[in-house]
């Protein structure tokens, strides 16, 4: 669920800080990033971390410990999210996990219209939503 013009509003209020550490040839790039996030809270899209943990086969060799979850992928996912959060904390940054929740009933009509526009009205998945 999005908020219209959220990033524009945050940028206008000076709440967005851009950190450029993309130059891998720059030996100071990692230090610049660490100093920029030190003492700050950073919103992290957990769905991205979860998707990476579930789809990257190379991680299977590294994260194969069973943590007692019914689903073996859940153990790997929990460990990866935990270790990534610890890595932020090691550098003085507090990660705040953000995930999408269930859309409120008030938005179901808008979702239905959006899905109808996307699927040409033949999708049917949201046929009764919002009614």
Automatic annotation (TrEMBL):
Alphabetical list of Gene3D superfamilies matching this protein? 5'-nuclease (3.40.50.1010)
Kindly list the GO molecular function terms attached to this UniProt entry: 5'-flap endonuclease activity
Q: Show where the XPG N-terminal domain sits.
A: 1-114
Domain of life of the organism encoding this protein: Eukaryota
Q: What is this protein called?
A: XPG N-terminal domain-containing protein
Specify the species: Micromonas pusilla (Picoplanktonic green alga)
Q: What is the lineage of its organism?
A: Eukaryota, Viridiplantae, Chlorophyta, Mamiellophyceae, Mamiellales
